[in-house]
């Protein structure tokens, strides 16, 4: 499983109460995956700046445009949507300077948006089933179950299929030769319009090779073919699975921005959005994103706003970083006027197939395609040849003896399949099977598991059994007389379904809201986990994928259905209809309604959205940061032809905390592994009126007072949420989601303090660690006010400082060493300022410091903003930031990024971090901590490449 820890950027958490410390800044830097293209920017130009000129010539009139040697990558010349250029300079250019130049409205770094993962592409056949006609797999499986989950089927039954609505997909291209996608391209075809901005070979770092044809046939480019199918596929008779998309009569426009591998730069995405508008799109569907919960660095905001005001709806995936907990959402999804979409797991595994044993008893296995090529094979359990009873611990693959015994058994893998088991404590440890020549694995499970395998087309093929079929197979194997082999014939070629125990719950991978400004995200959810859809013909024609990439096109298709019936509604009105008619779902295996931060308004209900005859406004409340949020107003309008009575109810959602190590009652539990913490701490709500009676055309406004429960742990980043549910007497249900943070963020500074962080050490602080043992749990507590540290090439004898500081919600921080007698008054002292110390001043030049504070140099600086090449500031968008940084090499950097060794003597550490919404140039907007004296013993002959040269 791919895992993206937010919290582990600067420190690796390794089990309870120990923290491995990062040792130097260069190492931190290399850990970052730089997505920023150096010296390359998107520049939005002022509309009244040389209006007679084209964008390129206008840019040349700006001050940065007067520099030599830049080239234009894209010109955006639509004054209605976006006017500007993307440019690449040969020499360093500062983004802040660019932003403030005359003629420039705004500017952003060009960044690479990573390629959306093909998550859970199980069992693409390792042979080519290509050709113009696909096999007929139609069986008893209800492959279109997601259409029922989103209540789309009832609209199809009425003939509402999205006719006349144009959906633009900005993705990896489409294999429109697929029979379910119309078989061709151009006017009159399902894929009627489009453009290839990049070409097959583009990977986000090389030059794109655009052309007019968005065809993508490579398997790795199959993402766009899958999302296109979700919107509008229609399998022909006697081919495929009988799949139908959400809006099979909608017109598709395909804008290809990803090649066959790698990412795409955001300047190309903006060009594609503008092109989609020019081509007449009603809906722009973007199953892609870059994890950026900070609104201020979102380059898509203006474009999305403009498209919206011109009637073009932008729908985007919220992202696949759910394991990181709240604040893990992506751009462009968080753009204020976009509809961001989370993912709900499918109720069924749509593609299971039947194998029969010699008594004709069935076993159903899960795979995209039937494994008929196996024919009749004998089932051998991992552990065969070991002289012990076979248990799940042996079949798990984590027992090497079992593999050794199997190797000695000399089996013929052409006629044998290996049964292994998938145990949560062991994982998929079946690597040794490859060396043994095993062709296929039959994977059983001992508990209900989420069946999602990351590696596509893996060898050997893994055929999964759900829990019921696992029990069946294992009991039959156990009953098999000694010496007699149990065989299965893989003869079934018609799809059957097996139930998905994770069905209808939010997917674990689906990113959480809110944004940093606490705007409610995602807005809505849709089926996105375990979704069968079209795939390039040469790669089998179909794939089962999981991701918010799959849920966004489901919403785009639903929106097409709604728009086809309500062509005059504005984009915000359409979105509000979808949100107020969505159905909130519960957490997995829980009676608690899932947090709005996870599901938004709930799972989409397309039929309810189309047939709604009550309008609820607004469709959501972002209550921001307060222990007692202001009262809100909800207006209910009865737009039906009959009198209706409505009742209001409050439905709380689960409460989340992003981290649990700041809670006084869990002092020694330092863990970010199982985040977020899901808690039952419900908010309450009062209504000015909870029953209303409205005649046709009447409306009423009701005051709602929501009250969160107080949370004593603001540093744990709590988020509360819930729904105002409005039920009409004809049983129509509506709801309005709300979300907030139950404390005042202005009052809670960014530096975590007065709470236990890692037992027994508090943040902020300096610890003393042996240079060869950088586990925090092993570090020493320095004496107050003054402690000595020493460096030596015998690392065992070196005792060095470790800076231990946690922060929340800061977009800029600086850690530097300053003169011991500095007169700066910090927000917090890490020593007793009344204690007199005879300082030993180092023979070390004092530099003019940041905001006037003298300094010896920088240990670490971080900003959420991309930085120019050579800057000592690291880009980081971490939210819950755990810093454990050891000064293994006694060197600092200046503001130009030059590194230098420091001399022996007394230093203090000064940590400054910008308060939430603070201004970087205002000293009052920082929270700061000044540490105790550190007396450094640094031998003058310490080698320049220390610690690499140490013994
Ligand atoms: C914008 O640029 C494109 C491509 O160069 C050109 O076809 C189009 O006419 C231009 N539009 C305007 C409004 O200048
Ligand atoms: C960084 O991103 C690129 C492009 O998405 C990817 O190929 C590479 O593996 C990533 N590197 C790391 C260290 O994550
Ligand atoms: C199986 O392995 C797990 C993890 O190593 C262990 O906790 C458990 O006790 C083992 N069970 C048996 C029956 O050996
Ligand atoms: C297994 O099948 C392959 C390909 O058909 C063949 O080359 C090989 O000899 C077979 N192995 C055995 C042990 O029968
Ligand atoms: C939060 O606290 C600040 C400073 O005390 C105050 O100005 C602001 O109004 C408070 N915000 C809310 C929503 O209560």
Distance between the first and last residues' Cα? 39 Å
What share of residues are in beta strands? 25-35%
Name the CATH homologous superfamily of the largest domain.
Peptidase S8/S53 domain
Strand elements, count: 52
Please summarize the sheet with the most strands. Answer: 8 strands, mixed
User: So what's the overall shape?
Assistant: globular
Kindly name the structural category. Answer: alpha/beta
Ligand set? 2-acetamido-2-deoxy-beta-D-glucopyranose
What's the CATH topology label of the largest domain?
Rossmann fold
Which CATH top level class of the largest domain fits? Alpha Beta
**Residue windows where pLDDT falls under 50 for at least 5 positions:** 1-18, 122-130, 453-457, 665-673
**Count of alpha and pi helical runs:** 16
Instruction: Estimate the mean pLDDT confidence.
Output: 90
Work out the helicity level. Answer: 10-25%
CATH-scheme architecture of the largest domain: 3-Layer(aba) Sandwich
Radius of gyration: 30 Å
- Number of domains as seen in the coordinates: 5
Keywords: Hydrolase, Protease, Serine protease, Signal
Family: Belongs to the peptidase S8 family.
Domain Peptidase S8/S53: 162-588
GO molecular function: serine-type endopeptidase activity
């Amino acid at each position: 499983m791919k895992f993206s820890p937010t919290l582990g950027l600067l420190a690796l958490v390794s089990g309870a109460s120990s923290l491995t410390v990062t040792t130097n800044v260069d190492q931190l830097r290399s850990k970052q995956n730089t997505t920023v293209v150096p010296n390359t920017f998107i520049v939005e130009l002022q509309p009244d700046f040389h209006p007679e000129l084209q964008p390129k010539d206008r840019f040349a009139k700006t001050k940065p445009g007067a520099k030599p040697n830049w080239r234009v990558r894209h010109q955006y010349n639509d004054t209605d949507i976006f006017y500007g250029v993307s440019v690449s300079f040969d020499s360093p250019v500062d983004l802040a300077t660019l932003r403030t130049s005359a003629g420039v409205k705004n500017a952003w770094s060009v960044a690479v948006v990573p390629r959306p993962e093909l998550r859970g592409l199980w069992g693409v056949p390792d042979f080519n089933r290509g050709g113009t006609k696909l096999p007929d797999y139609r069986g008893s499986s209800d492959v279109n179950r997601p259409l029922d989950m989103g209540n789309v089927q009832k609209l199809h039954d009425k003939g509402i299929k999205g006719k006349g609505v144009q959906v633009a997909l900005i993705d990896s291209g489409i294999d429109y030769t697929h029979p379910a996608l119309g078989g061709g391209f151009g006017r009159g075809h399902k894929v009627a319009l489009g453009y290839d901005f990049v070409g097959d070979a583009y990977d986000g770092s090389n030059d794109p090779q655009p052309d007019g044809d968005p065809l993508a046939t490579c398997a790795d480019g199959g993402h766009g073919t899958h999302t296109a199918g979700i919107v509008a596929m229609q399998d022909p008779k006697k081919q495929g699975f009988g799949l139908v998309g959400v809006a099979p009569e909608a017109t598709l426009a395909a804008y290809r921005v990803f090649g066959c591998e790698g990412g795409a730069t955001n300047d190309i995405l903006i060009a594609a959005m503008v092109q989609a508008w020019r081509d007449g799109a009603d809906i722009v569907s973007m199953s892609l994103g870059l994890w950026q919960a900070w609104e201020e660095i979102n380059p898509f905001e203006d474009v999305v706003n403009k498209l919206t005001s011109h009637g073009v709806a932008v729908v985007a995936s919220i992202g696949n970083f759910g394991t990181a907990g709240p604040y893990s959402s992506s751009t462009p999804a968080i753009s204020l006027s976009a509809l961001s979409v989370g993912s709900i797991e499918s109720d069924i595994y749509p593609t299971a197939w039947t194998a029969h044993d010699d008594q004709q008893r069935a076993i159903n296995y899960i795979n995209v395609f039937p494994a008929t090529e196996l024919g009749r094979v004998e089932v051998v359990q991992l552990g065969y040849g070991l002289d012990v009873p076979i248990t799940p611990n042996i079949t798990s693959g984590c027992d090497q003896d079992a593999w050794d015994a199997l190797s000695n058994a000399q089996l013929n893998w052409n006629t044998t399949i290996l049964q292994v088991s998938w145990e949560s404590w062991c994982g998929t440890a079946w690597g040794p099977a490859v060396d043994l020549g095993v062709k296929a694995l039959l994977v059983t499970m001992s508990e209900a598991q989420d069946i999602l395998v990351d590696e596509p087309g893996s060898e050997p093929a893994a055929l999964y059994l759900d829990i019921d079929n696992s029990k069946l197979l294992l009991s039959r194997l156990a009953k098999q007389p000694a010496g007699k082999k149990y065989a299965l014939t893989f003869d079934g070629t018609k799809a059957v379904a097996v139930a998905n125990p994770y069905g209808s719950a939010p997917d674990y991978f689906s990113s959480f809201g809110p944004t940093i400004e606490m705007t409610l995200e995602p807005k809505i959810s849709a089926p996105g986990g375990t979704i069968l859809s079209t795939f390039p013909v040469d790669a089998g024609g179909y794939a089962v994928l999981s991701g918010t990439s799959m849920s966004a096109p489901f919403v785009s298709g639903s929106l097409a259905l709604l728009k086809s019936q309500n062509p005059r509604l504005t984009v915000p009105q359409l979105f509000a209809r979808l949100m107020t008619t969505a159905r909130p779902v519960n957490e997995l295996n829980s009676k608690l309604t899932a947090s709005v931060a996870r599901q938004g308004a709930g799972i989409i209900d397309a039929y309810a959205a189309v047939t709604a005859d009550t309008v609820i406004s607004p469709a959501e409340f972002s209550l921001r940061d307060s222990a007692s949020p202001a009262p809100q107003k909800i207006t209910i309008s009865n737009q039906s032809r009959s009198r209706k009575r409505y009742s209001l109810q409050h439905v709380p959602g689960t409460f989340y905390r992003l981290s649990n190590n700041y809670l006084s009652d869990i002092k020694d539990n330092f863990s970010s592994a199982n985040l977020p913490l899901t808690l039952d701490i419900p908010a309450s709500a009062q209504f000015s009126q909870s029953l209303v009676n409205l005649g046709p055309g009447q409306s009423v406004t009701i005051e709602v007072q929501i009250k969160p429960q107080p949370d004593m742990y603001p540093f744990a980043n709590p988020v509360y949420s819930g729904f105002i549910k409005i039920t009409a007497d004809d049983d129509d249900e509506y709801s309005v989601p709300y979300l907030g943070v139950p404390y005042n963020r202005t009052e809670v500074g960014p530096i975590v303090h007065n709470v236990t962080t890692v037992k027994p050490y508090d943040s902020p602080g300096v610890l003393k660690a042996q240079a060869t043992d950088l586990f925090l749990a092993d570090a020493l507590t320095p004496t107050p006010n003054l402690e000595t540290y020493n460096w030596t090439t015998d690392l065992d004898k070196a005792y060095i400082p470790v800076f231990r500081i946690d922060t929340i919600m800061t977009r800029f921080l600086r850690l530097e060493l300053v003169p011991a007698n500095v007169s700066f008054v910090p927000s917090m002292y890490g020593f007793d300022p009344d204690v007199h110390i005879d300082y030993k001043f180092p023979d070390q030049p004092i530099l003019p410091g940041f905001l006037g504070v003298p300094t010896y140099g920088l240990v670490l600086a971080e900003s959420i903003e991309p930085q120019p090449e050579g800057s000592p500031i690291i880009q980081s968008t971490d939210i819950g930031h755990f810093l454990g940084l050891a000064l293994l090499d006694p060197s600092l950097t200046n503001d130009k990024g030059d590194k230098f060794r420091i001399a022996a003597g007394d230093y203090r550490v000064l940590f400054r971090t910008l308060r939430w919404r603070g201004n970087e140039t205002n000293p009052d907007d920082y929270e700061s901590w000044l540490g105790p004296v550190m007396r450094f013993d640094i031998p003058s002959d310490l080698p320049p490449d220390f610690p690499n040269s140490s013994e």
